[in-house]
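Extended Data, panel c. Modelled sequence:
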Amino acid sequence: MQPTPPLSSIVLTELNGFPLITIAANNNGHRRYVTAAFLSLWFIGWGMGAYSAASTLLAGEGNIGLAIWLLLWLGGGVVLARKLYQNVIYPRPERLLLNRPQLSYKPGVQSAKFARTAMRAVKGSDKRSRRQRKDAIRRIDFSAEEVATLHLSEVPQRLLIRTDERQVELGKGLNNNDIRWLYNALQEHYHLK
């Protein structure tokens, strides 16, 4: 296998005689702690608003509008708590075990990103985010037929494998040079050229 590009976040090792490609997860450095501190303060304010509305309702002074507002407010609090958790957890790297004819893939966990690319990911269904959480825990084994569907999309450059149920993106945290290197390495190893 060819050496990785300079300044790459890809590490090549072996596991049980098979090549193992590890892609370091983006941990956003110290920014994630600053963001977590900001979200924590925001969460405290969120809780004070919920407490105020709930105490008004329990005292019998509220109306249906306040009750609906409180339910929506609590739903927003759940979303905020989830973002805070995603920002605090330590990211886990992606791993690809090239155990030909299969490909074993562990997606890992990226720390939360608050950018346009993250907003695109949020637009998906909740079912997809549950699937992504489950996939991050367990390994996905691609068959030889599924590995043969490996392709590199043009804009934005994404490395995809099609399964019966969905498309899986490999190397989510990589830049374009690293994605091209990974694509060429997988093509070479699985004789897809």
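Residues 31-87 form one domain. This feature is highlighted in the accompanying rendering.
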